[in-house]
Write a structure and sequence with these properties.
Mean pLDDT: 93
Oligomer: single chain
Number of strands: 20
CATH class of the largest domain: Alpha Beta
Number of domains: 3
Low-confidence stretches: 498-507
Strand content: 15-25%
CATH superfamily of the largest domain: FAD/NAD(P)-binding domain
Radius of gyration: 23 Å
Length: 507
């Protein structure tokens, strides 16, 4: 531990979208980076979003023009950065004049279209709903605008994969149990959550990107008061069988001033959410309540011919958004913007903490965070992430890539090929490798999940358990029964984990 070669430039605490984004940006500038995450990548807030890359149309009502402008600009960047994970989507707003007058919506959409340059997406427009509309008959007009959909958890994972490709050391299932400054360096003690094995890492700088735990990390691990506080806002969603056949999503207005999104999901389902509720408990234990389910269903039923009940819910999930505490009166009014706090006493190792943020702006947030840190690293390179694609994103469009894969692997079922394109892009070639027939994919666990893909996820994407694979690396849990889940669990238990144990992953 005496050699400077054993000293990292940067340790990042937190394996959500901001942590992995910062790790990638820093590693790409030539910094030696270690990232630790106490659970799986994207296991908290970053996998429990509305799955949108958007400017935040409703933020205009709170005059967050800077955030909307930045988000709209990043929307275009991300559409080109990860064309396998992110796609354009049209959104419809049924007009309910007693909630928001038409002129207000038109002004908002005009600003939304023009606050930042649009390259990929169409502008907004008015729309009339005919007799074949999925909406209730009394809803006859509305508006359309463009935003984007994203596989949120895979976005996190691929940022981690890219960071590793740049030399970062990614340690999942690894808890940070002690942080202290020693001789102008950080000395961080890490613990494997499964084995109890500990290790110490020395680093020249530290990033606290712990999301919901960003403030508690100060108190629990550093025994000091946080410089800023976050407000934990619970957001819940439900997934139901597809309630309409249209490709468009819907933004539904509610009489409490909130909006709820209704989004086509995984071909045969509809995702509906989110709620906004102040949360005081452990972020690890957040769950949807029956009142939230009723709230979401009630808003959908006020708009659509297809009437839902609680029995229709196939899946529900909740997360807490760690929003910067701006002392707003209501949860929906709390800013979605972010800020950094740098603690760097003279001659001491710096620490940067991330407070707030949203999925859409993660790349810009990461770039700005590293910009604030590079003054401590003379060898750091320039910014670079704006035009760089994520792993698997180096292709023209999904249709062309799928056609190429169908040609190279004619035996691969079309539906499976389509999922591979949407999840892995050109990484599909790495997964399939020399497979010549379907049998080469190995054991079939169900719903198109084969052993070859499982092996890849364990070896290259830090997947450890059933939930990691069925809900974060994919959404195949929507189709898996208990027997299939047990078979997958048994396979994972017998998988060789010796190499991953050394790297502080799952035993």
């Amino acid at each position: 531990m005496d050699s400077t070669s054993n000293i990292s430039d940067l340790i990042v605490i937190g394996g959500g979208i901001n942590g992995t984004g910062i790790a990638l940006d820093a590693a790409g500038r030539g910094l030696n980076v270690v990232l630790c995450e106490q659970g799986d990548l994207a296991s908290a807030t970053s996998s429990n979003s509305s799955k949108l890359i958007h400017g935040g149309l409703r933020y205009l009502e709170h005059y967050d023009f800077r955030l909307v402008r930045e988000s709209l600009a990043e929307r275009e960047v991300l559409l080109h950065k990860a064309p396998h994970l992110i796609k354009p989507m049209r959104f419809r707003i049924p007009h309910r004049p007693h909630l928001r007058p038409a002129w207000m919506i038109r002004i908002g959409l005009f600003l939304y279209d023009n606050l930042s340059k649009r390259v990929t997406l169409k502008s907004s427009s008015g729309i009339r709903f005919g007799t074949n509309s999925a909406l209730l008959p009394h809803i006859k007009r509305g508006f359309e605008y463009s935003d984007g959909w994203v596989d949120d958890s895979r976005l996190v994972v691929l940022n981690a994969v890219a960071a590793k490709q740049k030399g970062a050391d990614i340690r999942t299932q690894t808890r940070c149990i002690d942080i202290k400054r020693v001789n102008s360096l950080w000395l961080i003690t890490l613990e494997n959550v499964h084995t109890g094995e500990t290790d110490q890492v020395r680093a020249r700088a530290l990033v606290n990107a712990a999301g919901p735990w960003v403030s508690s990390l100060y108190k629990d691990t550093m025994q000091k008061k946080a410089t800023k506080q976050v407000r934990l806002i619970k957001g819940s969603h439900i997934v139901v069988p597809r309630i309409h056949t249209e490709e468009e999503a819907y933004l539904l207005q509610n009489k409490d001033g909130r909006v709820v999104f209704l989004i086509p999901f995984e071909d045969k389902f509809t995702l509906i959410g989110t709620t906004d509720i102040e949360y005081k408990g452990d972020p690890s234990n957040v769950v949807i309540s029956q009142s939230e389910i009723d709230y979401i269903i009630g808003i959908s039923n006020e708009h659509f011919k297809h009437q839902l009940t609680a029995a229709d819910v196939c899946w529900a999930f909740s997360g807490v958004r760690p929003l910067l505490d701006d002392e707003s009166d209501s949860p929906q009014a709390v800013t979605r913007d972010y800020t950094f706090e740098i603690e760097a006493p003279a001659g001491m190792a710096p620490m940067l903490s991330v407070f707030g943020g949203k999925l859409t702006t993660y790349r810009k947030l990461s770039e700005l965070a590293v910009n604030d840190l590079v003054e401590y690293f003379a060898h750091a390179g320039p910014t670079w992430t704006m035009h760089a694609t994520l792993p698997g994103g180096d292709f023209k469009d999904q249709v062309t890539l799928q056609a190429q894969l169908n040609s190279n692997y004619p035996w691969l079922p079309i539906e499976l090929c389509s999922r591979y394109v949407r999840s892995y892009g050109t990484l599909t070639y790495q997964i399939l490798s020399d497979a010549k027939v379907l049998a080469d994919l190995g054991q079939h666990f169900g719903a198109g999940l084969y052993a070859l893909e499982v092996d890849y996820l364990v070896a290259h994407e830090w997947a450890c358990g059933v939930e990691d694979i069925l809900w974060r690396r994919s959404k195949l849990g929507l189709w898996f029964n208990a027997t299939q889940q047990a078979d997958l669990a048994k396979y994972l238990q017998t998988f060789n984990t010796q190499a991953r144990t050394k790297a502080f992953q799952c035993a």
